[in-house]
Amino acid sequence: MMLWIFIILSIAYFLLTSTFLFGWLSIKKLPKNQQNNSHSTAVSIIIPVRNEEENILDLLSDIGNQEYPKDLIEVIVVDDNSEDATVDIIQKNQDQFDFSLQLIEQKDEKPFNGSHKKRSITQGVQLAKGELIFNTDGDCRFKVGWIRDTVRLFRLGGYSFISGPVTFFRSKNLFEKLQTMEFSGLIGAGAASLNLGFPNMCNGANLAYTKKVFQEVNGFEGYEQLPSGDDEFLMQKIYKISPSKVVFNRNASCIAYTSAKDSFKEFLFQRRRWAGKWKFHKDIKIQLLAMFIFLFNLFTLSTFLCAVLGNCPMDIFFAGFVTRLIVDALFTYNVLKFLGHRFSFFYFLILELVYPLYVIFFGIISNFGQYEWKGRILNHKIDE
C-alpha cells in the first residue's frame, strides 16, 4: 500500500513541477526598447528596520545610485525599536542623499500585541506621498535599474501589485550555497504559480503596489498578529479583487540581493517563521499544496527506509527518485540562471538528498512552540 501511495504521489509531483516549469518559462519579460512615461511616477520606498546598523547605509546608497529621477523618490525608514546604532547611522548620514529621506522611530513603552513589521509598513504607507509603494528590507542590495524597470512594468501593464525576485549573494560555503539553491526554488515556484493564476508565495524584500490598492484591501487587516505574512497575504488579498493586475517581475535588473544565514540557529528561526504561515491561508488550495509537499516527502523517506530494510523494491524507489531529480533539476536550473547563479549538480544532489528531512522537520515544528526573531520571542497565531 505504501509503495502505491509513493508511486501516485511521485507522478503527481512530476506533473506539478512540470507545470511550475511551464509557468516559469511563460512569464513575460519587459520589452527592451519600448518607451513609456515611467519617469512621471512618484515612488515611496518603505524600509522597516530593526538592528540593521551593518546594512542600512549600503541599501540607501543603492537607492541613491538608481537610474531614476531623485525628486520622484521618497524613502521612509521605519525603525522598530532598534537596539544597535541603526538610528544614529541614518541620522548622521541623512543629508548626504539627494532623495527625500524620512526616519520614523517607533518606541514601545509596553508590549505590542501584533506584527511589528506590518505595523511599520502600514505607518509608512499612511505617510507615503508616492503613487507606487516599494517594500524592501534593510539588509537588501539592488542594481541601478530596480526602480526604473519596476515602474516601467507598472506603467505598461497598469498593475496594482508587483512581486519582485530575490536571491542570496556572497554564498561562501556549502551551507550558504544550499540555502541559495533552495531559496531559488521557492522564488521560482511562487512566480510560476502566480503566472498560472494560483498565487501562493512572494517575498517582502522586493514588492511594489499602489497606495490606492493597499487602502482598498485595508492593508494587513485580518493578519495583524501574525509575525510574518506581510508579503503573500497582502498579495492574495489584492489578487482577489484584481487578479489581472498582479504580476511577477521577471527582469534581472530588478533582483533584490540579500545574504544567506551564516548560522544554523538563524536559519532555523527564519524557516520556522516562514513555515508557520501555511495554516493561516484562507485559500484551501494553498493548504492542500502545503500538505501534498509534506506527504510526498514523508512517503519518499518512508519508502526509502522500507527499501533499505528489504520490504520494498529498491528499483521502484530509485525510479521515483530519479524522476524527481530530473524535473527538479530542470526547474532549478532555469530559475538559478535568471537569478545569476551557476547550477551545480553536486550541490543540487546534496539538497535533494536532505530535502525530505528538511520538509518533514519544519512541517512538524511550525505547528508548535515559540521562536526567536530579531531579539524577540514570537509565535504564529491569530487571536479570536
From TrEMBL:
GO terms for molecular function: glycosyltransferase activity. Keywords: Glycosyltransferase, Membrane, Transferase, Transmembrane, Transmembrane helix. Residues 44-182 form the Glycosyltransferase 2-like domain. Signal peptide: none annotated. The chain crosses the membrane at residues 6-27, 288-310, 316-336, 343-365. Its EC number is 2.4.-.-. Coiled coil: none annotated. The keyword Glycosyltransferase applies. It is an enzyme of class 2 (transferase). This is Glycosyltransferase.
